[in-house]
Amino acid sequence: MKRYEQLAEQIAELIRSGVLAPGERVPSVRQARRSYGVSPSTIFQAYYLLEDRGLIQARARSGYFVRELARQPLAEPGSSAPTATSTEVDVSELVFSVLGSLKDPATVPFGSAFPSPELFPLPRLARSMAHALRDMPGHAVIADMTAGNPDLRRQIGLRYRVAGVSLALEELVITNGAMEALNLCLQTVTQPGDLVAIESPAFYATLQVLERLKLKAVEIPVHPREGIDLGVLAERLANLPIKACWFMSSLQNPMGATLGEAQKAELYALLKRHQVPLIEDDVYAELHYGAQPPRPLKSFDDAGLVMHCGSFSKSLAPGYRVGWVAGGRYAEQIARLKLMTTISPSVPAQAAIADYLQHGGYDRHLRKLRIALETQQAAMLASAARHFPAETRVSRPAGGYFLWFEFPERVDSLQLFQLALAQGISLAPGPIFSATRGFRHCARLNHGHPWDAQSEQAMAALGRILATL
Ligand SMILES: Cc1ncc(COP(=O)(O)O)c(C=O)c1O
Q1: Are 405 and 445 in contact (CB under 8 A)?
Q2: Which of 3, 199, 356, 383 has its CA 20 to 30 A from that of 266?
């Protein structure tokens, strides 16, 4: 990380934690020079970066101030508290009924799982698709099916290297999105009836996969900033025959938590001690707001226990259905299982993404995307503070495009969901994120769409509905 990026990160953290309050002046160049021992040009570069990220703004002849938008008057939720027993999962019907309601493009998409298509370089990707297919040797159309496009494999390997993970390319299995990777991993290491540790709340598709494979969920509490409760996990691993863990150690969906590096090391040590494999779902890895990507648990893996699943769906090419897993000691089994089921993701889609990664300016696109998402997060937080009941609690993740809301206990989020939908607004109600249909007064809202008057009106409408519940 460059020095100005480090300084920007330090100041962003002061803003995020509330040490620097909205409207407060950030240190002047002279103060910052004295406190941080850096040159004026480094300070200016850091402040320009923070201004781009929507966290501070310049006032004529007065310096830089923390933006009002960065205010977080709503408190943060506490840890979740799932039951201590294992549970059979039965959520699919509820999930499908919620997802089915998201299809109307006229609906305000707070319930969506994707950012706005406007934020993706789709025309540039189309050019990459045309270019890659024009140049593709005939034999590649068939040969690339099994192992995957070699350029794509190399590019993914390179990105791991940059993120501090040295990976043997043989570990990589290219899949139909992360969803296939996650399914294959779980099938590789479990049998029906086994116990799997998951987060509570968890991504709803995790619950559906467990349900489909007849696995039982052991739900581990999650804190919206600190991530999973390692004490509870240690206790469960010691006392229950858990066969696998499925966690998101960074930008967890839906709560947004990212474990600190020390906690990641501790988690890995725990899994290694018990020799329990980890399926690491890291599909939001590229959407961090800070200058550095959070370190994946895979980077600690010296025993091949971690199956690290990634995807281009959230950061580049939704609908192309290209993802992957770095499968550790399970890679070969996962690859065979893939050959027995879907054989391969589309070869043209792989070739298009490989071409884009080489020539399309992926990192430039990601920088713009992260700034858009962070600015929209600030807008949604500020809007929630204006319109939602004062007792509402909300997460504040350091990346991604979801906020997790905990409403007053009296609110039934399934009722809120129905009433909001009748007004053309979608949201993801809490119970779809729980094996036991918990989180009844919670909801996940998506801020992945450019913020406009319609977004503001929709938040106001939600606020009016909340006031009646
Ligand atoms: C946490 C999480 N994991 C996996 C996926 C699936 O990713 P893909 O579209 O690559 O299959 C999603 C998409 O919603 C997700 O939110």
Answers
A1: yes
A2: 3
Using most ligand atoms within 8 A of CB, pick from 251, 283, 342, 446 the residue to mutate for ligand 1. Answer: 283
Q: What's the pLDDT at 435? A: 87
- For the Cβ of 253 lying below 6 angstroms from any atom of ligand 1, the answer is yes
Ligand 1 pocket, residue 283 CB under 6 Å: yes
141 forms beta bridges with: none
Query: Is there an atom of ligand 1 within 6 Å of 351 CB?
Result: no
> Residue 72: which pLDDT band, with cuts at 50, 70 and 90?
low
Q: Is 45 in the pocket of ligand 1 (CB under 6 A)?
A: no
Query: What confidence tens digit (pLDDT) does each residue in 30-58 have?
Result: 888 888 889 999 999 999 988 887 788 88
Instruction: List domains and CATH numbers for the chain.
Output: 3-66 (1.10.10.10), 87-118+364-468 (3.90.1150.10), 122-362 (3.40.640.10)
Largest CA distance in the chain: 67
Residue carrying structure tokens 């002061």? 14
